[in-house]
């Protein structure tokens, strides 16, 4: 009888020790999990804080546009391009279809879309942009009188009955290009709208 009691007590002791070890393992695993979660959360906060803040600007406003030599009020809407690091306003009769590499705007005058009347801002190299334009049939000719005082180099664009302009420049240490082209009959309407888009650019890093 004593042997039976001895074995029962021994078995209870072993079960108790195993249970304690399991609880300790669970506590250790939970502590490790909590530590990992805190590290991941901390990393997320650091990443968020490293992003450039978007400028605090109204979503919509009215600006004055010169159309055929006459001033005209134009409603413009705010757009951000986080990857390229700028915000700007776009006239409400134009459409924005961008991707991480290119800010792309094209005409939608009187509700008629025309992607041949377009303005693009990109961080692509001068070599890549030049090749793309030439592959699309455009001839580039260097201009002496620049349209943008911040540009390093500017060229006129010509293709059949289409005209345009391309400007290469730097912001900080990064290379950028602004270029636009459109059918000749769009010149009076597209030019003033392009000026609004370029003139309203606000860089997220606030560099000049």
What does this entry look like structurally?
- This protein has 3 helices and 11 strands.
- With 208 residues, the protein is α+β, with helices and mostly antiparallel strands.
- It has 2 domains: 1-50; 60-203, Mog1/PsbP, alpha/beta/alpha sandwich (Protein Transport Mog1p, Chain A), CATH 3.40.1000.
- It has a 7-stranded antiparallel beta sheet, with helices on both faces. The chain has a 4-stranded antiparallel beta sheet with strand order 1-2-3-11.
- The longest helix is centred in the N-terminal third of the chain and has 49 residues, at 2-50.
Q: What fraction strand?
A: 35-45%
- Give the overall average pLDDT: 82
Rg on CA atoms, Å: 31 Å
What name does the CATH topology of the largest domain carry? Answer: Protein Transport Mog1p, Chain A
CATH top level of the largest domain is Alpha Beta
Structural class comes to: alpha+beta
Under CATH, the homologous superfamily of the largest domain reads Mog1/PsbP, alpha/beta/alpha sandwich
Helix content: 25-40%
Instruction: Please tell me the total number of domains.
Output: 2
Number of strands: 11
Order of helices and strands: HEEEEEEHEEEEHE
How do the strands of the widest beta sheet line up side by side? 4-5-6-10-9-8-7
């Amino acid at each position: 009888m004593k042997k039976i009691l001895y074995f029962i007590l021994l078995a209870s002791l072993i079960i108790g020790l195993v249970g304690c070890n399991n609880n300790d393992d669970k506590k250790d695993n939970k502590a490790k999990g909590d530590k990992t979660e805190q590290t991941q959360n901390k990393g997320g906060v650091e990443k968020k804080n490293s992003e450039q803040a978007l400028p605090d600007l109204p979503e919509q406003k009215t600006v004055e546009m010169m159309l055929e030599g006459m001033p005209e009020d134009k409603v413009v809407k705010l757009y951000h391009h986080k990857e390229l690091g700028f915000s700007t306003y776009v006239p409400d009769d134009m459409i924005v279809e961008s991707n991480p590499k290119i800010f792309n705007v094209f005409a939608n005058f009187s509700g008629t879309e025309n992607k041949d009347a377009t303005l693009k801002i990109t961080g692509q190299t001068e070599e890549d942009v030049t090749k793309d334009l030439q592959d699309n049939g455009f001839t580039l000719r260097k201009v002496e009188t620049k349209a943008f005082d911040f540009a390093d180099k500017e060229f006129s664009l010509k293709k059949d009955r289409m005209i345009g302009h391309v400007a290469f420049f730097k912001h900080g240490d990064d290379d950028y290009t602004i270029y636009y082209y459109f059918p000749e009959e769009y010149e009076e309407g597209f030019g003033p709208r392009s000026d609004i888009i370029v003139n309203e650019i606000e860089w997220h890093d606030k560099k000049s």
